[in-house]
């Protein structure tokens, strides 16, 4: 396993005990680099069950210390598909920009003393992925604030987008239509699960409510257009996981 732990966390390690420090789970894929420099870092924090409320309160109060350094796209609390988790997305223009941000955070005394030294003992582990937008998708804002988000992660079978890309696009866009959910973005992983990054893709959706999402799910089962598109794509699918998430009050994307 190749650890990509930031200089920030190395600096903060001395502030917490080894037992309390969160252990990151990060792997390097062998997929080709995206031509575009801009990428999105997916971060998932696993929170101690007894510290979930305290962690969210602390983050709500101190997130401005972090957003002063780079752009936060969204920050969500996972409601279904994982307990005591938060998921957030950060935008970077290049790897050198991200490295500079991490270095600056490691030297930011307010960030270290007011947030990271308090937050780290509340976590059990962390996971991150570097993702790029797929060529046919753009990051979209939801039509209104409120509602719920669904993150769907797909592990596609070996072969890469040359094999399953068109079928996957057709299945996703079939759902991104009037009367269904709103596609916020489709992403492919560059750094994530070992040797499988190029076969891991994600879609982020917005719904008016959890009940609307359930209605859409039922509707899709009886829509011949959607069923046909999904049938052509699912033959390339190894596994899938879903998380239903609520935006935090401080999330730019609500």
Provide the fold topology.
Elements: H1 7-12, E1 23-25, E2 39-47, H2 52-67, E3 71-80, E4 85-92, H3 95-106, H4 109-119, E5 123-133, E6 148-156, H5 161-175, E7 182-191, E8 200-207, H6 210-220, H7 224-234, E9 237-247
Parallel strand pairs: 1-5
Antiparallel strand pairs: 2-4, 2-5, 3-4, 3-9, 5-7, 6-8, 6-9, 7-8
Helix pairs in contact: 2-4, 5-7
What is the H-and-E element order?
HEEHEEHHEEHEEHHE
Q: Tell me the structural class.
A: alpha+beta
Radius of gyration over C-alpha positions, nearest whole angstrom: 19 Å
Number of strands: 9
Note the gap between the termini: 35 Å
Major sheet size, sense and barrel closure: 8 strands, antiparallel, barrel
Q: Give me the CATH architecture of the largest domain, please.
A: 2-Layer Sandwich
What count of helical segments does DSSP give?
Answer: 7
Return the CATH class of the largest domain: Alpha Beta
Strand content: 25-35%
Overall geometry comes to globular
Outline the low-pLDDT stretches.
Answer: 1-33
Strands in their spatial order, largest beta sheet:
2-4-3-9-6-8-7-5
Q: Residue-averaged pLDDT, rounded? A: 86
Overall structural domain count: 2
Named CATH topology of the largest domain: Alpha-Beta Plaits
Helix content: 25-40%
């Amino acid at each position: 396993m190749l650890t990509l732990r930031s200089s920030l966390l190395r600096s903060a390690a001395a502030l917490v005990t080894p037992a309390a420090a969160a252990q990151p789970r990060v792997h390097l894929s062998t997929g080709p680099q995206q031509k575009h420099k801009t990428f999105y870092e997916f971060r998932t924090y696993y929170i101690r069950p007894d510290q979930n409320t305290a962690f969210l309160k602390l983050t709500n109060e101190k997130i401005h210390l972090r957003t002063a350094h780079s752009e936060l796209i969204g920050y969500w609390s996972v409601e279904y598909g994982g307990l005591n988790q938060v998921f957030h997305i950060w935008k970077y223009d290049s790897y050198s920009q991200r490295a500079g941000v991490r270095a600056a955070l490691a030297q930011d005394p307010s960030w270290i003393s007011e947030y990271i030294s308090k937050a780290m003992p509340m976590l059990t582990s962390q996971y991150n992925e570097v993702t790029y937008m797929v060529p046919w998708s753009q990051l979209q804002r939801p039509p209104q604030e409120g509602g719920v988000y669904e993150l769907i992660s797909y592990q596609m079978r070996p072969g890469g987008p040359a094999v399953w890309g068109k079928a996957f696009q057709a299945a996703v866009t079939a759902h991104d239509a009037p009367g269904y959910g709103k596609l916020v973005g489709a992403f492919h992983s560059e750094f994530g699960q070992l040797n499988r990054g190029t076969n891991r893709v994600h879609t982020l959706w917005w719904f008016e409510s959890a009940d609307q999402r359930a209605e859409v799910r039922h509707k899709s089962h009886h829509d011949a257009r959607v069923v046909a598109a999904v049938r052509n794509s699912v033959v390339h699918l190894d596994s899938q996981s879903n998380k239903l998430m609520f935006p935090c009050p401080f999330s730019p994307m609500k």
